[in-house]
Amino acid sequence: MSEDAASAARAAGPVMDDALARLEANARQQTDGIWLEEVTADVAPHVRDWNLGACWRWGDWPDRDEVMPAGTPAVDSGIDLVARRRDDGEWIAIQVKSRRLNLRGEGERVASAEMDKFLAAAADRDIWAERWLAVNGAVPLGGHTPGKVAMSGAPVKVVNVAQAVESQRAALAAAAEDGTCPHCETGAGAGTPPTGPPPADAFVHAAGGGRVGGGPSARQRAGRRGRHPPRRGAWSYCAAVRRRQDAHRAADRRGVDLSGRVVGGAVPVDRAGGPDTARVHAARRCAAAGDGGVLGPGRGRRRGEGRQHR
What we know:
It contains ten helices and five strands.
């Protein structure tokens, strides 16, 4: 680790520790969210997955007069924070919502009325490259909010600040042990954004999914253990199974009536799509026994047919 990288890591550690303490202290409180604005602005340059070079509260944004149209008020008009991406310098508008969390780290959903001012203030896509909703736990969009966001013309990314801070603090601790820097893995200078694909957990941090505290959701844990395929693969797999079952039913309708009698000289088809030789042979045995090709459940003939009762 270079000297600049080591000093950056040393500076980030206390910031993350203070942020974690404030997040924990306010997790069970109903607050106005100003504390979360301060925490988010402080940790933003240190969270690798966010790719932010700087972050300001709206009133402290130094480039507001140059970027925004004339007459834009200096007071908060819907946008709580403004961040600048590290790699390309584009602007990000951030709305911050603090919730009282339960023991599972979940908070009340964000209603559409709470997003109206933000969506209107950050509607200019020539200015804003991204729009974020920063929350202090597992706080999703609720009600008609997703539809309203979709109609506003640009997506809104929900960012779980608590999860991102805990993950980055763990990365800093691991880097201190093995001598690497989370911002400078390949010898790049301090402050250079990482290259290559993001880690698997980056999408969890950005979307705010899973449990508060950095862990993956139950579905993600089950998927990693191989209990079921991923969402897209599962859809393709289920669609293929349905098509195969439909073909099997159609073949059964053509070859066997509801009573199990072989009709029309057709050959029954098994689940794999090939000829069901077992059913064909059973039908032949029943026909030879005088049952007329009836396939009863569990036997080659119906009960009482093809034989005499005593």
